[in-house]
Design goal:
The chain is mainly alpha-helical and 226 residues long. Helices cover 59% and strands 0% of the residues. The chain contains nine helices and no strands. The protein is elongated.
Length: 226
């Protein structure tokens, strides 16, 4: 598979071009949730408030757009998780913020549709997955050290649950769908707190146990931490 990243440094974008790029990525994320991977590019441009030429200037084809939506969503979750780590004194609250922020980013809707033609070993994607791995593991480690997170839960369990519980419900509009995801994620979070009320089957899922390569919340293909 051909890498989607560029081998040369990208020129610095003007402020208006940066805003247009952000609007296109945000609009594409919502259109992909609504229509799937075949979301009309014309509709994405319309929602972003830009012309088709502007969209193609930033993203020359559908594959490029899908790839950069994946990076965009990943980076937004990473940044918000880092902010939670820096500002939250309560380790479990920092973990909770990361989990619920993932619902707002529509992660579950994007996971199944972005794997077809994207090279999982693209350097940008590998770096993004590595950042996600580290920040997630740090959140889990801190919650374990504080005694608030049950010991039979690993970072992999957290990521799998987020991906599954943020899948869109057919026939439910955007805001209602996000609300449902946040409700069910909160129930999940309540079940993560100590003391544990049940014994879970199997063992804690670590990052290295996950084999998925494309989902925004997936770890790198190399070995993770236990």
């Amino acid at each position: 598979m051909v890498s989607t990243s560029s081998t040369t440094a990208r020129p610095r974008l003007r402020a208006d071009a940066v805003r247009n790029r952000e609007r296109i990525l945000a609009a594409a994320r919502e259109a992909l949730v609504e229509y799937g991977a075949d979301a009309p590019l014309d509709e994405i441009a319309r929602r972003a408030g830009v012309g088709n030429a502007t969209l193609y200037r930033h993203f020359p084809d559908r594959k490029s757009l899908l790839f950069h939506v994946l990076l965009y969503v990943n980076q937004r979750i990473i940044e918000r998780a880092r902010q939670a780590l820096e500002t939250e004194h309560d380790p479990f609250e920092a973990l909770r913020r990361m989990v619920l922020d993932s619902a707002d980013e529509r992660v579950g809707a994007l996971c199944p549709m972005l794997g077809s033609d994207i090279d999982p070993e693209d350097p940008q994607l590998v770096a993004s997955r590595g950042h996600m791995q580290r920040v997630t593991q740090k959140l889990v480690d801190r919650a374990h050290e504080s005694g608030q997170l049950r010991r039979d839960i690993g970072a992999g369990d957290l990521l799998v649950a987020i991906a599954r519980l943020t899948l869109p419900m057919p026939g439910v509009r955007h805001q209602g769908d996000v609300l449902l995801s946040r409700r069910h994620l909160q129930v999940f979070l309540d079940g993560l707190r100590t003391p544990a009320r049940s014994e879970l089957p199997g063992r804690a899922t670590s990052l290295e146990d996950l084999k998925t390569e494309i989902c925004p919340l997936s770890p790198p293909s190399g070995r993770g931490r236990r």
